[in-house]
Amino acid sequence: MAVGSTKKLNMKIIIFGAAGGTGRELVKQALAQGHEVTAFVRSNKQPVQQGPGLKLVAGDVRDYASVRDAIRGHDAVISALGTKARVGLVIGLVVVCQILAPSTPLLAWLFRLVIPIGIILLFSRRNPVLSIGAKHITDAMKELGVRRLVWQSALGIGDSRGQLGALYNFFLSPFFLRGSFADKEIQEKIIQESGLDWVIVRPGALTNAQHTGKYRQIHGGGYSLATPSIPRADVADFMLKQLTDDANLHSAPGVVS
Length: 257
Description:
alpha/beta; Rossmann fold; 2 domains; 8-stranded mixed beta sheet; two-stranded parallel ribbon; 10 strands; globular
């Protein structure tokens, strides 16, 4: 079913990961709704929509002091933090290994199997930036008395495991996204144990399609063969609604088109 609307309330919001795909949509839509927005980015050279009511803060979520200082004075926190999975690069390197494999049996084994496995393990190791960011953000919120937290995670994490479809279940998640998904599991646990007024949003595969405002929630487990998707703009729409809607408080709904 389609997600219902919520009443609008102007707030002072800080958005982490504001320069990413979902982050830019969050900034755009939050400004359009009349919120005062602070965009927290790694560098002030990153592209973020400019406009009245927007403040840009450059910092590193791994630095607690900069996170705390940025959150101070806000009513709510939204996170669209993410890490880039270099799936295309890894597949390309593995293919090159197969092409360059020499005819000598021992070296061929090395190029066809050992080196590709090493490449996959190297690029799929866990980067703890999301869990570190979650720890610093939740700790700062508790220190400053900021209660509302809306956090983008991913479908396929926690009790939604299996819902991203066969491609992710049997190929991408176990190999190329293993480290990323492991860190998302840790970040969710940190948020769930924070004692804050949190909502974790788990979108399906993200696309750059236009904002439709039409999407549905998924709760609980289950397995699917097809990969559900959703435009980043619709994910931003749903996340902003969670600022004032308590229906999903202390839960982690999936959201798909």
